[in-house]
Design goal:
Elements lengths: L22 E7 L6 H11 L20 H6 L6 E7 L2 E7 L7 H10 L2 E7 L15 H12 L4 E6 L8 H12 L7 E3 L1 E5 L10 E6 L4 E4 L6 E3 L3 H20 L6 H6 L6 H14 L3 E5 L13 H11 L9 E4 L5 E5 L8 E10 L3 E10 L1 E2 L4 E5 L16 E5 L3 E5 L2 E4 L3 E2 L3 E5 L9 E4 L16 E7 L2 H17 L4 E4 L6 E5 L2 H15 L3 E4 L6 E4 L3 E9 L6 E11 L6 E5 L11 H14 L10 E9 L7 H17 L3 E15 L3 H9 L4 E7 L4 E9 L6 H8 L5 E11 L2 H10 L1
Parallel strand pairs: 1-3, 1-4, 4-5, 5-11, 6-11, 31-32
Antiparallel strand pairs: 2-3, 7-8, 8-9, 9-10, 12-13, 14-15, 14-23, 15-22, 16-21, 17-18, 17-23, 19-20, 19-22, 24-26, 24-27, 25-26, 28-33, 29-30, 30-32, 33-35, 33-36, 34-35
Helix pairs in contact: 1-9, 10-11, 12-13
Length: 740
């Protein structure tokens, strides 16, 4: 691959493209700490988009611009940094690597057409690695890419680290990511090592190009191309054969391998074309290396080669498969391709709030051309196969596009239009949320949104003060609209306001954003599960409410029998009064009283369920009896019955489905047993993975999203659903009553 003319837009002016073939949308993915943000800076410097590369430690990078990211020194949100290289606009998307922000990762995968998968050359068996050399978290990110068929190349970073070993990491990547086809993960370059330093480490000073058979030396701080010496040529020749065979194996020309084996020299253009097609199909993953530029240098090691691969070897938006669409009612419409003159189809991949502009929507345009001041149709749901809507707010609205901009980190640069294949920001779309479809008002379309993980870590919150309470509802609504991996619940049973998140870091960022962005302070309180009470045996109760204090008094007496019913029966009220002992007009009053008391609980303050309450006798007074008096008597009768009976505390039981690698199956099952869980079955779920199905009390899995990650080294996942309520063990029930 030869050098290409470098080009970048002037500072403060948005980069534009006049055709989809001149656009590349690339997302950087990888485990937290792999060096993605540093690589973005290095690419931006080499492309001339910045004059000096910022450092994560200094909070000076283009892509990590949020105050929360500065404090935490790691990415927590998707960001966009457009650069230009060789006349091609490259939209570089930087994603967080921490598992709590997988929603941002999936949004980046949706917006991009190819990925740079970043791994550290120092990643190994220590610190979460397991013999295979790569941590479970790294492999989970690879699986996220594979799940959506994302074409990707591998970039090895941290070459300067003491334990860095590019050759070892390239081999590990081949073993881990290409177990069925080792020739699907092959280096495009070999490292050129400089002199051995005092520490015994020989730094990487350049690259040996296997396809071009050229040496790219970065010793001077800029890329210098030269011919290899005999020793370097020998290294290139040995590794080049395997690379060429790997590329040819993916070629659509079935005669190419025979020609190569017969000694024919395959020209470089043919190899590059076949490489591009294999990468676009997702069947071949070239391995490269990169390092940030030294102080004062203009190009970081390997960054020119990466930009060349992106522009010459990565797919264009035109190569993305046609998108299936429907109208808002679910009726199929013709598939949409990447055509600037086609029907408008775009999708909101990220929603954020700007203190000056308001809501800002980052949009991927899949078809048509997006222009300011035009009216769009916003649709925020996708009908399922049975016509039922997806479990999110259903909303449709026509909205006028305001200013159109191209983000460069936190900067917004004005755009005149956004063509199919490009990314742009739209301001003040008040109804649009992440995942919504934007289309022409006259011909509304709808795309199926990408799958988002279910937030399973609850955080119960309360407003810190009355002033915060007034702003809490609006702040939370905006927070959830921006991040579809958060879910807000007003629990009708515990009366708690619960924010469901993906992990502890996700929770912390949510609270920080509430405070810093919306000026709302909240207090975290213990999350409560929905407990119930029921009778353990038959009981009787007599409610006597008799008061005389001058004028009309209060008189009502009722006698009831209470008996337990099967689970799920609720409260059943039976009238067996004979002889008019309780006048007919007061029978509903007694029922109302006992139901109100049942809702308040009879022992520890939890709702009473699954009992039959039979009114069998009572007394009334012709003057002093009233509706209120018999309500009070009914409640007193139920409380007296409870005082004489054994009251069981019922706890909710969840059906848990855990997906975990076989290596962690034993620890996961032991952990479930320690939580009073009952494993009901296990089954294989693909190579090296198993599904564990269990029933477990909900009170035991409040923090399971965090604890499973620890037990499985970041490789496990789970889903949960309500099964039933069942009696809590007596010793635990006594403890809960004391707390109540």
């Amino acid at each position: 691959m030869g050098d290409k003319t470098q080009h970048s837009g002037a500072a403060g002016r948005a980069l534009t493209a006049d055709r989809p073939s001149a656009i590349r949308n690339v997302v950087l993915v990888g485990h937290s700490g792999a060096g993605k943000t540093t690589l973005v800076e290095a690419l931006a410097l080499t492309a001339g988009a910045v004059g000096r590369a910022g450092r994560v430690e200094d909070g000076a990078t283009v892509s990590d611009y949020d105050e929360i990211e500065h404090r935490r020194q790691r990415s927590v949100q998707l960001s966009l940094v457009p650069v230009a290289w060789g006349g091609i606009k490259i939209n570089i998307l930087d994603t967080p690597g921490y598992a709590d922000f997988v929603g941002e990762l999936r949004a980046g995968l949706r917006a991009a057409d190819a990925a740079l998968f970043v791994v550290s050359a120092a990643e190994g068996a220590a610190d979460g690695g397991d013999g295979a050399g790569l941590s479970g978290a790294t492999r989970m990110v690879w699986d996220e890419c594979a799940a959506v068929g994302m074409p990707r190349a591998i970039v090895v970073t941290h070459l300067e680290a003491a334990r860095a070993d590019y050759d070892r990491m390239a081999a590990v990547c081949g073993e881990t990511f290409g177990p069925d086809d080792p020739d699907a993960v092959i280096p495009l370059y070999l490292p050129l090592h400089g002199p051995v330093g005092p520490d015994g480490h020989a730094p990487v000073a350049g690259l040996l190009g296997l396809l071009s058979r050229r040496v790219y030396d970065y010793t001077s701080g800029e890329r210098v191309e030269r011919d290899p010496d005999p020793a370097e040529l020998a290294l290139i020749t040995d590794a080049r054969a395997r690379l060429i065979e790997g590329i040819i194996a993916e070629s659509e020309d079935e005669t190419l391998m025979d020609r190569y084996l017969d000694g024919e020299e395959i020209d470089l253009t043919t190899l590059v074309d076949d490489l591009e097609r294999a990468v676009a199909r997702g069947t071949f993953h070239p391995v490269l290396m990169a390092a940030p530029a030294a102080e004062g240098a203009r190009q970081g090691l390997g960054t020119v080669e990466l930009l060349e691969l992106i522009t010459g070897g990565f797919p264009t938006p035109l190569e993305r498969p046609a998108l299936a669409v429907t109208d808002p009612g679910g009726a199929p419409r013709p598939a949409v391709t990447c055509d600037p003159d086609g029907p408008l189809l775009a999708e909101v991949v990220k929603t954020s709030s700007d203190p000056y502009v308001g809501r800002v929507s980052l949009v991927r345009v899949f078809s048509g051309t997006l222009r300011p001041e035009e009216t769009l149709h916003v649709c925020g749901h996708f009908p399922g196969a049975d016509g039922a809507a997806a479990p999110r707010d259903l909303h449709e609205a026509d909205e006028r596009v305001g200013t159109l901009t191209s983000p460069f980190g936190k900067q917004q640069r004005t755009l005149t239009h956004g063509i199919a294949g490009d990314l742009a920001c739209v301001a003040k779309l008040t109804h649009a949320e992440t995942g919504d479809t934007l289309s022409a008002k006259a011909s509304p379309l709808l795309m199926e949104p990408w799958a988002m993980p279910d937030p399973l870590l609850p955080l119960a919150i309360e407003a810190h003060s009355k002033a915060d309470e007034d702003k809490l509802s609006q702040g939370l609504a905006r927070l959830v609209a921006e991040d579809p991996t958060m879910r807000l619940e007003q629990n009708p049973h515990t009366h708690q306001l619960v924010l469901w998140c993906l992990g502890e870091a996700h929770q912390e960022v949510a609270l920080e954003r509430l405070r810093s962005r919306y000026g709302v302070r909240v207090d975290a309180v213990p999350h409560r599960v929905s407990l119930r009470e029921t009778f353990g045996a038959k009981a009787t109760g007599r409610g006597r409410h008799v008061k005389q204090s001058g004028g009309h008094g209060q008189f009502a007496i009722c006698e009831i029998d209470v008996e337990p019913l099967p689970a799920g029966s609720g409260i059943e009220f039976v009238d067996k009064v004979v002889g008019g002992a309780v006048p007919r007009q007061f029978i509903p009053s007694v029922e109302k009283g006992v139901r109100a008391q049942a809702a308040r609980g009879v022992a520890a303050g939890y709702p009473l369920v699954d009992v039959r309450i039979t009114l069998r006798d009572g007394k009334a007074h012709s003057v002093d009896s009233s509706d209120a008096a018999f309500q009070t008597a009914g409640a007193l009768a139920l409380r007296e019955a409870a005082a004489e009976a054994e009251i069981h505390l019922l706890e909710p039981v969840a059906e848990l489905t855990v997906l975990v690698p076989d290596a962690y199956l034993g620890p996961v099952m032991s952990d479930l047993a320690g939580r009073r869980g009952r494993v009901v079955g296990t089954e294989p779920a693909g190579p090296g993975r198993s599904v564990v199905r269990a029933e477990i009390p909900e009170i035991e899995i409040g923090r399971y999203a965090v604890e499973l990650r620890s037990v499985s080294h970041g490789t496990g996942g789970f889903s949960r659903g309500y099964a039933r309520h069942e009696p809590m063990p007596p010793q635990l029930a006594d403890k809960m009553r004391e707390q109540a």
